[in-house]
Design brief:
There is one protein chain. This protein is 30% helix and 18% strand. It is α/β, with parallel strands linked by helices. It has a single domain, classed as TIM Barrel (Alpha-Beta Barrel). The strands form 2 sheets. The protein has a 12-stranded mixed beta sheet. Strands 1-2 form a two-stranded antiparallel ribbon. The longest helix has 14 residues. The protein starts with 6 loop residues before the first strand and ends with a helix. Its EC number is 4.1.99.22.
Length: 334
Amino acid sequence: MQLPSQIIDNHGRPINYLRLAVTDRCNLRCFYCMPEEGIKYLPKKHLLSYEEMERLVRLLASMGVNKIRLTGGEPFLRKDLINFMQTIRNIEGINELNITTNGVLTEQYIPAMVKMGISSVNLSLDTLDKERFLKITRRNEFDKVMRCLDALIESGIKTKINMVVMAGQNTEDIVPLAELTRTHAIGVRYIEEMPFNGEGQRTKQLAWNHQQILATLKAAYPTIERVKTAPHATSVNYQVPEHQGSLGIIAAFSRTFCGSCNRIRMTAQGTLKTCLYDQGVLDVKQLMRAGATDQALAVALLGAFNQRAKDGYEAEQKRKNQLPVSESMSTIGG
């Protein structure tokens, strides 16, 4: 079988972006991501090895995937991650290597990331208030995260802050976080809360959706302007004229961007997800460990891409027994 130079799914959407979870472990306990207790982390042997992940990336790169984002859990909890990052950075066809981190362990690795030419770092930060940080994350790590943010800005690495907006928790932080873009060339992305917390949706209706977030920003910055958004972007982006940085809103629960989705996910356990809201569509780890050749693996992957859900709502409807979304984001890959 001739492998394609560019993967196109059954809805005509190109797939060129892999979000690769390197671990299911995390050193925070953010309530919107996981319960405080009860998360059962898998033994290392049940996770993809670095060698297996490298093999997968090389195969996908040969089929047109050129952008990788490493996620977790918290990626830097995985031993020797920097060496693995350098390996991925060197794979032919991979033009972008990015990482999403909570910043607790990250600062020490910033020089190495600069040296390897990492494309960007997304820092998860839901508040600039130390007490609210403790309440949200259930861990007293605010100072480390803020030092990491300062170091990222100083390093010149393209940096975005990811804030999950939650009613009654941190909506008062929307504008203070936006103020960071006044003097710093960073992006702040506001994300609708999703039910991937290990327990399920906290409320029947989303109290703070993308429209309410935008209304808050417009009230604070009447001159805010919508700017051109890159193809396949999940965020709708804005600029306050006098600010150096940018603002973006990701309708992750409303799912307004599915029509141009170019991304797939691989969980740390080796399960392919062609949509955030599906339950996993292919056990790649099992195929690899059963001795599948690259050709057989590619055929299986292409078969999954050819049965991709049209959007997050269809993916959710197709879940076994139509069970509601309730898994922890740490087991999915952020």
